[in-house]
Amino acid sequence: MLSRFSTVLPALLLAAGACGYAFAQAPAPKRTKVAAAAAGDTQPASADAAIRQSSQAFVAAFNKGDAKSVAALWTEDGDFTDEAGRTFSGRAAIEKEYADFFAANKGVQIKLVVDSIKLLGDNAAIEDGRAYLEPAPGAPAISKYTAAHVKVGSEWLMATVRDSRIELPSAYKNVEDLEWLIGTWTAEEHGAKTVSVCRWIANKSFVERAYTITNHDGTTSSGLQLIGWNPQGGHVQSWNFSGDGGHAIGVWTPRDGGWEAEVRGVTGAGVSTTATNHLRRLDDNAYVWQSINRTAGGQPLPDSDEVVLRRSAK
Fold first, then answer.
1. How many CB atoms are located within 10 Å of the residue 167 CB?
2. Which of 93, 119, 178, 231 could lock onto 88 through a cystine, CB 3.0 to 4.6 A?
3. Residues 108-125: pLDDT tens digits?
4. Percent of the chain residues topping a pLDDT of 90
């Protein structure tokens, strides 16, 4: 359940132009105000409802990055085994693991799907379900979990939780070098402002880049770029679609500190275009883009200026 996921729970704009997570009973713990608020004040009418309420409290505490309230949902001597097989025993160890995870994955959110709850008597139950993280670190996967609950006093607490990871079909391993690009980027050049929003789509097989350019006179243009793996060519490739009906395809080659793309396309008016686009990463929060060797209708065009794109704060 570090996803309930561990870690285990645990570009780029190279198109033509500017186109880039045992069971032993223990004395009932004192609940923190946060945990009590997350679980709600009402008492559920059945064991099933109480366990589902506990799951909702887990989600609420997880999404706040509150490791103490997450761990409070375990028995004092409960344990958690993550997708890598590591076991954390005792509430203090579980709290520390979640605190470390939240520190390394700021803002991560979780969604749980409870598949089944089986009562084993008046004071024990087994819950099976799936957990999804957003944004999900690494290759796309589903975290399946089994949680053993026990009733301690009037509360249902987790005693043992086991996670397992099921990876989904994806071309992510071929394009994972683009992970740093995910986010929102802005640039200003000659009075024009460009905003690009990059996100994973299709099981993290492609990066989708939606961009809007606002000119100094207030007019705007927009477009869409997809960046992914071409299995026939054995290379990264981009497909760009502009607002005027134009389109372009870029063949990407890794270069020192970035990428180079040989791009061929056509404008909405039917004019053929070519360019060599360079992307050079400066750090996690900035990169430089430039287009050179440009032509339109067979006629040479000047190289573009270097444009620095910077990551926008969330």
1. 12
2. 93
3. 999 999 999 999 999 999
4. 76
